[in-house]
């Protein structure tokens, strides 16, 4: 019974995590879609780390983009533990966070997310297709609550 419940919860959460929005593109989310590296005219460098007082942070904790803009987001985990970066609408971030709390070892390969071990680097090339306020966070249990979250403001063209 417990296994069936777990499978049901995973199946119910899968559409929110997989990024489908009902649009014709399976990769497009409310926040946008994977971009082409050649179209990225700007890079945002984002570090992930822990502080001496126990906080976990992204630096910067917010950034801006323009509707239709493709950015290269470059990540460096300066910390001593794994961290991840997931960006989406706030509601989707909170749904994903709740699933991660129940299944902390869950691995996912979403185009709007990256997980890095200590000392590792990575990148996401992303096109922000819609204006609005979006969110990002590290959804490894406890990290979001320790401060690993931020905002993305996408301005209209």
Overview in brief:
This protein is α+β, with helices and mostly antiparallel strands and 157 residues long. It has helices at 2-18, 90-102; strands at residues 33-34, 42-50, 56-59, 62-66, 70-77, 83-88, 113-116, 121-127, 132-137, 149-155. The protein is built from two helices and ten strands, in the order αββββββαββββ.
Verbal overview:
This protein is α+β, with helices and mostly antiparallel strands. 19% of the residues lie in helices and 37% in strands. The chain is built from two helices and ten strands. A hairpin with a 5-residue loop joins strand 2 (42-50) and strand 3. Helix 1 runs antiparallel to helix 2 (90-102). The radius of gyration is 16 Å and the shape is globular. The termini are far apart.
């Amino acid at each position: 019974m417990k296994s069936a419940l777990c499978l049901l919860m995973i199946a119910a959460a899968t559409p929110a995590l997989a990024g489908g929005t009902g649009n014709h593109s399976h990769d497009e989310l409310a926040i946008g879609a994977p971009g082409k590296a050649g179209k990225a005219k700007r890079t945002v460098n984002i570090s992930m780390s822990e502080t001496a007082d126990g906080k976990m942070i992204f630096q910067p904790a917010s950034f801006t983009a323009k509707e239709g803009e493709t950015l290269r987001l470059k990540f460096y985990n300066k910390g001593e533990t794994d961290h991840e970066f997931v960006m989406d609408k706030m509601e989707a971030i909170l749904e994903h966070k709740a699933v991660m709390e129940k299944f902390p070892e869950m691995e996912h390969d979403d185009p709007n997310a990256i997980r890095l071990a200590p000392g590792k680097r990575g990148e996401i090339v992303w096109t922000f297709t819609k204006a609005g306020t979006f969110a990002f966070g590290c959804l490894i249990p406890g990290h979001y609550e320790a401060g690993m979250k931020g905002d993305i403001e996408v301005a209209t063209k």
